[in-house]
């Protein structure tokens, strides 16, 4: 590798490091101060970079906001992608449910903030809605595909079409999201939710469900 190539690698690494610092700073400020109350200058001070560098990475504050959302969601998609290859359809469905609820549980303040921004700011909500709907659509399509394959293999109830079963499951998950926002630690835990999904989709009994435990205990 020549000197120019080494320099290029170093510059890309520095660029990625600076982007990471900007995202960390923005995540902290957005969550604690709000979108409108946070300026790009404040993000620059928090990240210890120039304001010009922020605009080099992100053209607008809205683009930075969406990048923060992606950063929050990224670990869950990566974890699922790494585990999915070794899991059957049933286990993948249960893992998707678990990841959804773990994300909500671990990021309650951020989820509450994002929802508030989407409801209050029409300009921001257009770009944010597009991003969220793309992620949500991908999650929904994956569930439809997994439930359909489970039905074909006879391991999942065939009483409902895959699209209908997915719609009902997502309605339940979104209801649990609201439960977390209002009830916090009193909300249904991810393990219990996975057990309920197993009982509804796969016919598990509470006594034999791996995640459900023994209700008589």
Task: Explain how this protein is built.
This protein has 217 residues and is an all-alpha fold. The chain has 9 helices and no strands. The chain has helices spanning 3-33, 40-47, 51-57, 61-84, 89-106, 108-120, 122-152, 162-183, 190-202. The longest helix has 31 residues, at 3-33. The termini are far apart.
What's the CATH H-level superfamily name of the largest domain? Tetracycline Repressor, domain 2
Tally the structural domains: 2
Structural class: mainly alpha
List the secondary-structure elements in sequence, H or E: HHHHHHHHH
Instruction: Report the radius of gyration as a whole number of Å.
Output: 21 Å
Q: Which architecture of the largest domain does the CATH hierarchy give at level 2?
A: Orthogonal Bundle
Mean of all residue-level pLDDT scores: 79
Number of helices: 9
- The poorly predicted ranges are 3-11, 208-217
- Terminal CA distance: 64 Å
Features:
2 domains; Arc Repressor Mutant, subunit A; elongated; Tetracycline Repressor, domain 2; 217 residues; 9 helices; mainly alpha
